[in-house]
């Protein structure tokens, strides 16, 4: 009987830890979402239905890659894996910069300003100072 209770308690504790990992409700203003990679994911899909120019580029690459007299057909997977090897640190930095919203860029500038000058300005004070508004 005590073993059954222990098992239920262990199951209950597991459930609590899983629930506490993802909280519901309103999030605080300074809440940062932590990105976690799911290493169990084995399939990736690229939806290009709305990006007509990019889709056309993919088709052109596939057509030119497959204009050959011998060998097996080159698939999108082959192109993607080849391109992944060519991605450099500078390319990743460009992607990271492109993923920022306007407000995140302002917040980053505020953080850099506070570190450089040893101040603790708020967003409003920083904008007033930068825009020279009195």
Characterise this structure.
It contains 6 helices and no strands. It is elongated and about 70 Å long. Helix content is 60%, strand content 0%. It is an all-alpha fold.
Low-confidence stretches: 4-20
Count of helical stretches: 6
User: What is the gyration radius calculated from CA atoms?
Assistant: 25 Å
- Apparent shape: elongated
Distance between the termini: 75 Å
Report the order of strands and helices: HHHHHH
Beta strands, count: 0
Structural class: mainly alpha
Average per-residue pLDDT, rounded, comes to 83
Helix content: 55-70%
- Most strands sheet: none
Strand content: under 5%
Short description:
Helix content is 60%, strand content 0%. The protein has six helices and no strands.
Write the layout of secondary structure elements.
Elements: H1 2-21, H2 52-65, H3 76-86, H4 89-98, H5 102-117, H6 123-131
From the structure above, extract its key features.
mainly alpha, 0% strand
């Amino acid at each position: 009987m005590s073993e059954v209770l222990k098992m239920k308690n262990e199951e209950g504790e597991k459930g609590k830890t899983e629930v506490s990992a993802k909280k519901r409700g309103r999030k605080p203003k300074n809440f940062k979402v932590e990105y976690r990679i799911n290493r169990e994911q084995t399939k990736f899909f690229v939806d290009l239905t709305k990006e007509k120019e990019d889709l056309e580029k993919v088709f052109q690459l596939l057509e030119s890659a497959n204009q050959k007299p011998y060998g097996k057909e080159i698939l999108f997977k082959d192109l993607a894996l080849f391109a992944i090897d060519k991605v450099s640190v500078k390319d990743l930095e460009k992607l990271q910069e492109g993923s920022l919203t306007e407000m995140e860029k302002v917040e980053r500038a505020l953080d850099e300003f506070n570190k450089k000058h040893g101040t603790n300005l708020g967003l409003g004070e920083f904008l007033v100072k930068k825009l020279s508004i009195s």
